[in-house]
Specification:
alpha/beta; 6 helices
């Protein structure tokens, strides 16, 4: 497919290729997943998102996507509110553990609304910057020379 050719070109030109996809499993996303070394499912802690991830994981496994290539990122891109699902409730509904949790920080929303990558000014010692640094460290540690990273997220995430 044309997506596979495009990803092949990107692999030769860049050390890392990150693809942010729509939250659906169509032929384009399938081509991206087929060509990826890792896939990051980014989701919010709201019940519909958690439910969607819980249903998507077995589908990905059913089509042969290896579970060791899949990472879950719980994105807290809003302030806490009464009645929200806690991390224990969220992880209890998922068929596998969450790999990363991005904490809510008001500055993330401001950066997203202004179109400014917050990570460029974030400290790597705690909060959002620390989580993104851990993800970057994992990516650098992968063995292949060039990588395609797919992010078939269920909801839009805060600007990185």
């Amino acid at each position: 497919s044309s997506m596979s050719r495009l990803l092949g070109l990107a692999r030769r030109a860049f050390s890392f290729v990150v693809v942010d996809t729509f939250p659906m499993l169509d032929s384009t996303v399938m081509a991206i997943l087929d060509n990826s070394d890792l896939a990051y499912l980014v989701f919010q802690g709201a019940a519909p998102s958690v439910y969607g991830v819980a249903r998507l994981i077995p589908i990905l496994e059913g089509i042969g996507f290896q579970s060791d290539r899949l990472r879950l990122i719980l994105n807290h891109n809003h302030a806490s509110y009464p009645g929200e699902l806690g991390e224990k409730e969220i992880t209890g509904r998922l068929p596998r553990p969450v790999d990363y949790v991005t904490p809510y920080q008001k500055r993330l929303l401001m950066a997203m609304n202004n179109g400014e990558p917050h990570i460029l000014r974030a400290t790597r010692m705690f909060g959002f910057g620390k989580v993104v640094s851990r993800i970057a460290d994992e990516l650098e540690a992968t063995q292949s020379d060039s990588r395609v990273i797919a992010e078939p997220q269920l909801l839009r995430k805060a600007a990185v």
